[in-house]
Amino acid sequence: MFGPRLDGERGVSLVPATAEHFKLQIRWVLQPEVGRFFGPRFGEMTEERQEDRFKKTGEDETQIMWTIAYQDEPVGWTGIFDIDWVRRDGESGIVIGRHDLFGRGIASEAVRLRTGFAWRELRLHRVHNWIALANRGSRRANEKSGYKQMGVYRKSFFRSGEWYDEWLGEAYPHTFPDQR
Amino acid sequence: MALGGTIRGKKTTLRLPAETDLDAYNRWMADMRLRRAHRVWHEPAMPATWKERLKETAKDKMGVLWSIEAAGQLVGLAAGNFWSVTESGFTIRQFVVDPGEWRKGYGFDAALALHRYLFDYLDLPRVGVEVRADNVAALRIGERLGYVEYARGHEVHYRDGGYVDEVQLFMGKDAWRERWGATEREYAPLAADATR
Description:
Distance between the termini of chain A: 29 Å
Helix content of chain A: 25-40%
Shape of chain B: globular
Order of helices and strands of chain A: EEHHHEEEHEHEE
CATH class of chain B: Alpha Beta
Strand content of chain B: 25-35%
Oligomer: heterodimer
CATH class of chain A: Alpha Beta
CATH superfamily of chain B: Gcn5-related N-acetyltransferase (GNAT)
Radius of gyration of chain A: 16 Å
Number of strands of chain B: 9
CATH architecture of chain B: 3-Layer(aba) Sandwich
Structural class of chain A: alpha+beta
Shape of chain A: globular
């Protein structure tokens, strides 16, 4: 499913994704700056595949996904995936695809909007995630919205001759700053 | 999920699942003792639905499903998935022993055999599993095998009117070698003249 439009601060909004946004993801994730903490930079990267993913995402009732807009331009995506509606738990994720916009607080605002929606509208009990420990920007963005460390997975993946650890975080309604 | 072949333990054997196993799978997934201990693989369903699930499972390239036998009787199932083409590893998603067969040592025996296959035969560098914090039997098996905890999720699983934590466990090939490498091998070493 796609989430509704949520307008935040500093020109950041979460908006329902479109097929065109899904096609932009190909360009974003294949760049070294974005792929460092994300994927292997190869795959079935075709527009047809993205159209299919767009349809499947829209039909999937175990996820809520948004495109992140900055000054009304699509710049990445975020969502809560694999939601278990009995446990009321899901796994969150975020990608800022426009690496020229890193460091402007876009992820922090997107995570704040997403996390507030999880508590206020979806009535989730918990959201958790995995973030590369060295991806300080993403980790900090999540911590500002109440994510706390629940563990560290050592030597998760290998890049440029170095092992990268992963930080495991979890958040609850009572850890969200706006609800403290 | 693909269907797994024969892995022999001392008391148990992991083997190719068959349609005749599906009645027992369905019974286990409806058993509240098992559901309390462990997230179920699928909800109870009609026989035709289970046949369809088995067919789909056979086609999945990243996962493997085994039935577990002891003394010629079906006593459980095991299932998990490989990580990705760029990351070698395996996550155990299901490890079920029929509640009527608990406390006979089948769980540890089958788990040891499965890990021998994963580390000694497939040469995987690491295996992971997530266990409910009150599933003492599973935690004890993990500890004996050589797993270590790397994370603990709080209030993750809901059942019986309350939440229980989840323990995330990891085992690397070094731990396997240190603890089991000398005694657990799929095959005896090659003879000195084997390649002549």
